[in-house]
Amino acid sequence: MATYSTNEFRSGLKVILEGDPCSILENEFVKPGKGQAFNRVRLRNLLSGRVWERTFKSGESIEGADVIDLDMEYLYTDGEYWHFMKMDDSYEQLPAGKNAVADALQWLKEQDVYTVTLWNGDPISVTPPNFVELEVVETDPGLKGDTAQGGTKPATLSTGAVVKVPLFINQGEVIRVDTRTGEYQNRVK
Amino acid sequence: MTSGSPDQTLKSCIRERACLLGALRGYLSSHQCTEVTTPVLRPFGVTDPFIASISAYNEQNRLGFLQTSPEYAMKQLLCLGSGDIWQLGPVFRSGETGRRHRSEFTMLEWYRCGWTLSQLMDEMIELTTVAATAMGPVADDALGQLTSSSSSSPTKRTYRSLFEDRFGINPHAIETARLASLCTKKLGSLGQHIDPSTARSEYHDALFSQLIEPTLESPTFVTEFPREQAALARVAERRGDTVALRFELYWRGVELANGYSELGDQAELNARFVANNATRKAMGLPEMPLDDEFLALIDVLPDCVGVALGVDRLHMVLTGRRSLAGTEPGK
Question: What are the record keywords, sorted (chain A) (predicted)?
Answer without folding.
Answer: Cytoplasm, Elongation factor, Hydroxylation, Protein biosynthesis
